[in-house]
Structure formats: C-alpha cells, structure tokens
C-alpha cells in the first residue's frame, strides 16, 4: 500500500515503516559519528520504542555495544492498517542490531502490569543475568494500577486558577489565546498515579528483589522543567506535581539500591516535539520559538543528540555525575541558558499568526512532528507501494 499521513488533531493515524526505519538509521549514523562511549553493557529500556526511550536504546547499543531489552506497548499492523510508529521503529532497531551483531530482544505489553515485569525479569535471568542500566521512559496518558485495578487518567491542567495564554495550531499556524480551567484534587492524584514515580519504584523493587541488577548499576528516569512561560500549565500544573513525585522517588530508589552500590537519577531533558508535548497548550508555540533561537545559536538538539550527550558527558563521564542543587542531572542546560530564554521571551511578546513564520520555526516543528510517524524524511520514496505487515524479529 502507499502510506500517507492522516491527521486528527495532534495525532497522526498512520505511520510509515520505511520512514521509521530511516529515523532509526539516522540516529545510529549520528551515534557512530560521535565515537564510542565507555558505558553500560546490559541495558533494560522501559518505554523503548519512541522519543527519548528509543534514543536511549540506540545510544546504549550503538554507542556502547550494549545488549538491550526493550519494553513497550505498541500496536502491530493489520492488513490495510499500519502499526503504531513505535512498532516500526522497534522492527528497524532489531534489524540494525542484528546486522551489527548486537543482542536485542523486546517485550510488547503493558509495562505498568506485574505480568510484564515478571516476564522481563525472566528474560534478563535467562539471557543477560543482570543489567547495569535501567532507563525508565514511559509516556502513557493512562495507567491501570497493578494492585488496585483502578484506571487512572492524567490531565493537563493548571492548579488554583484558570490559565490563559497564547498557543498555536501547528497544522494551520494560527496563533490564538487559550484558557484552561484549573484541576481538582482528584485530577492531581490521577496524574501523579500515571506520570509520577510509583511505577518506576515498582520496577526497581522487582528487579532488586529478583537479583538482576548488577553492582553499581544506574537507573535513569526523564523529566522536564521548562521556562516561566510554560510553568503555570506545566511545572506548576498537574504534570508538574507528577514530575515532583518522580524526582522525589529517585532518592527513595537510591536508598534501596545502596546495598549494591547502585544509584537512581532523574535527567531533566530539553523541550522536544513528541506526541505528548503536542497535546499541551502553549508548548508548541514555545518550542517553535525555542527551535528558532537554538538553531541560530547552533545549539539545537533532537532526542539522539540529547541522549548521546547525557551518556557521554553525564552518566559515563569517568567521574562523578554532575548534579544540580536538587540532585538532578541537567541536560536541558543549553535550552535554559540565560541568553536563549531572554530571546524566546522577547519573541513570545511578538508572536502572532502573521509574525510566527518569520520569528519562529513552525516548519521545523511540523517536520519533527511528521518524523515521529515516519513521514518527511529525505531519501524515502513515499510514493512507493510497500507492505504495512512488518514483523519484529526478536519480540517475546
């Protein structure tokens, strides 16, 4: 079939296997261009199929020649219906790992469930023995709690008062004001249950109890802070409460891991185009302005550049990992530079439908959004008739 992008709001309903393969190969090529990393050897990536999780798996495998196990929850293809992009990303990763002689296996299922945790532990025991790095990069909007059975749904809402500010429809380029009503206490509790640190801690408890963590292992979860412009709807909103919980959980996990010399970190990463960020009002406009500024200063990074730098210059530096005063790794340091944020704040005041094409990088935003689903890559023939029925070799 000839596969074209079909949009519904901030979701693309189709994905392109050839474009997803190009996405993976581009990231691998970048990793190889930067040289080897003296990093981990056996790696578990929870949320391994897209975004920072996929970049982490690629960095571990092709930067450090690590054996990797990936856990994700992706929709396989059906005749006449494409798979989710993470499925095609993972299929391509497995193919590239096999060509490079690297161990790679994956589990497709609900990472929040006890069943998937147990299945993962059994695979580690059978094939790797122990893992020395665990990346936690889940980005689900819902979670069924494995103990209570309650389905929790996260929400994107401010706390305390209605939030009003600019946003952009990145499909049309129209800048408008948007108002978001404040949350209630139940909204906060549900968002923390989905996006906080409880499941990360459950994973690490299970791995520790099963004795599949190597001495001096590391585990890393990903977070975001962002600027004053977005904090009412993000860092001081419901998601911010979940991120606060995630960051506090790192200390709890580290205490539990002391017995084996292991440590838990939270890495605060840069704002990037993801399916999740596209759904957050204000963020697409902020990112389009940020991209313009960072590209002009030649310090723009995508997922793979961020994670390569995280591994090389933070986690596996050869000395103690540098942390901020709150105990977090900061790989958002270029985004949060004073000169970058001052310029973005200046452009924000000027931003409207007419000025945005000139002062922002809306095209860069759109391209990155399409890339998430395998579209818009140079060197891919999107008029080619190809099969949507792609299997993942090495899926358990």
Describe this structure as you would to a colleague.
- This protein is of the alpha/beta class.
- It has a single domain, classed as 3-Layer(aba) Sandwich (Rossmann fold).
- Helix content is 41%, strand content 16%.
- It is built from 13 helices and 13 strands.
- Helix 1 packs across helix 3 (85-99), helix 2 (51-64) packs across helix 10 (303-315) and helix 5 packs across helix 7 (238-257).
- The longest helix is centred in the middle third of the chain and has 20 residues, at 238-257.
- The chain is globular.
- The model has no long low-confidence stretch (mean pLDDT 95).
Write the layout of secondary structure elements.
Layout: E1 7-8, E2 11-12, H1 17-33, E3 42-46, H2 51-64, E4 67-72, H3 85-99, E5 104-108, H4 114-128, E6 131-136, E7 142-144, E8 151-153, E9 163-169, E10 174-180, H5 185-195, H6 198-209, E11 213-223, H7 238-257, E12 263-268, H8 275-278, H9 283-296, H10 303-315, E13 329-330, H11 338-350, H12 356-359, H13 362-372
Parallel strand pairs: 3-4, 3-6, 4-5, 6-11, 11-12, 12-13
Antiparallel strand pairs: 1-2, 7-8, 9-10
Helix pairs in contact: 1-2, 1-3, 2-3, 2-10, 5-7, 6-7, 9-11, 9-13
